[in-house]
Amino acid sequence: MLRQRCLMLRRCLESPTPRFGMVLPSRAPGPLGGLCEYGTMLEIRSVQMLLDGRSLVETVGSWRFKILEKDMRDGYNVGRIECIDDISDEDEAELERLALDRNAARSAEASSFARSETPAPTPTPALSAHAVAPSIGVPTSTVSVPAAPSRGPSPAPAPPQPPQRELSTAELMANCMHFVDKVRSGSAPWLQQRLNSTLGPMPANPREFSYWMALVMPIDEHEKAKLLPIRSPRLRLRLLVHWIEQLNGSW
Predict the structure, then answer these.
(1) Are 168 and 96 in contact (CB under 8 A)?
(2) CB–CB of 202/177 below 8 Å?
(3) Which H/E stretch holds residue 194?
(4) Positions of the chain with pLDDT under 70
(5) Backbone CA torsion sign across 205, 210, 215, 218
(6) Nearest Cα to 21, choosing from 29, 9, 32, 10?
(7) Which of 55, 133, 166, 201 is 20 to 30 A away from residue 156, measured at CA?
(8) What pLDDT digit, counting tens, does each position of 51-78 carry?
(9) Rounded distance, CA 36 to CA 222, Å?
């Protein structure tokens, strides 16, 4: 295996753009022979060859891809891939607008239900002319009026379950930032230094921030890989906030 990796690395370095793809091994059988469907393209920054034949390779992730076809060449995996790009800024803004519009629609629906539950005033029953006769000294006939069948009170309709409010993209990022502050405040100084030196400063752009945040999350790498096919920064942030809520519930 070491020889195949050295051969692959040498061929990558000989190419005009030294890079290679990184893919996690699949945990379930699939058509790609033990590989996950999505991966990350790594640009090679530097290589240090060790005396025992191993190499220290410094890389940076550049873009995502989906494996379309897989093959083997000289003992290592090769394949045909498709680049995965995020949706446009316009589509991203529209996605957030629709989410916030759903908040307004749900709020209006809840208000309408509350108004429909307000009880109507009870009308005063009218007296029947045959039930009461004038006292004028003449015989009167008594007419019995059958009572209406007793019906129990109608069960009130169950109130709708309050749906979870959609957060704006800024609110999603704020939740993530709060989690980072929480981790840093409860961590040892060496861990804080590692966060700063390894991950770098916190990006302000939601696209870059979502991947930076994934590196901070103390969860399984296969869970993090679920972010790769998602083409919307907002939807990636929603998944990150979901993970944060799960972690907060278990800590």
Answers:
(1) yes
(2) yes
(3) helix 189-194
(4) 1-2, 109-163, 187-194, 196-197, 251
(5) positive
(6) 9
(7) 166
(8) 887 889 999 999 999 999 999 888 888 9
(9) 9
Lookup result for tokens 């290592």: 76
- CA–CA separation, 180 vs 184, rounded Å? 6
Residue type, 19: R
Torsion sign (Cα): 78, 9, 196, 219: positive
Please, what is the end-to-end C-alpha distance for the chain in angstroms? 40
Which residue bears the tokens 């002319």? 129
Q: For residue 127, give both structure tokens.
A: 């007296």
Residue corresponding to tokens 């519009």: 101
Q: Identify the H or E element spanning 91.
A: helix 89-116
Alpha-carbon distance values, 62 to 25, 83, 194 (Å): 20, 11, 22
Give the torsion sign (CA, 70, 72, 76, 80).
Answer: negative
**H, E, C per residue of 22-39:** ECCECCCCCCCCCECCEE
Tokens of 209: 């921030």
Chain segment 8-32, per-residue pLDDT in tens: 888 999 999 999 999 999 988 878 8
Name the maximum alpha-carbon separation found in the chain: 130
For strand 19-22 and strand 55-73, is the pairing parallel, antiparallel, or unpaired? Answer: unpaired
